[in-house]
Predict the 3D structure of the following.
Amino acid sequence: MIVADASVILKWVLPGEAGEEKAASLRAQHVAGARRIAVPVLLFYEVANTLALTERLPADAAREALLAIAGSQLVSYSPSVEDLQRAAELARQCRITAYDAAYIALAEALQCDFVTADARLANKVRGADLGCCVRVL
């Protein structure tokens, strides 16, 4: 299992994204059951927000993209109080948003890797005492 953030999942539906082949490979592994992808429930809000505001897709295509992601059987987790506390701690320590930190806190709780396409995020958490490996797509 891995935890993937919205920067990875959105590559499944947004055309012309750098790294979309790698993201598609992760999706194929997930669908085949070879490597499950876990996400905090906030991913669906982040994805919906991005698709609602993008001009790269017409409204009907954005709705279809959201349905495709929602129906992709991602393993979603609601945060525990401990997860929220850890996300807040990471956000403060690494100067990242609590939203980004939520993915890392989930990966730590699940004892798996966190995958992001956001190199800036990965750089900000480099050197922090994390209980997971951070990989850039």
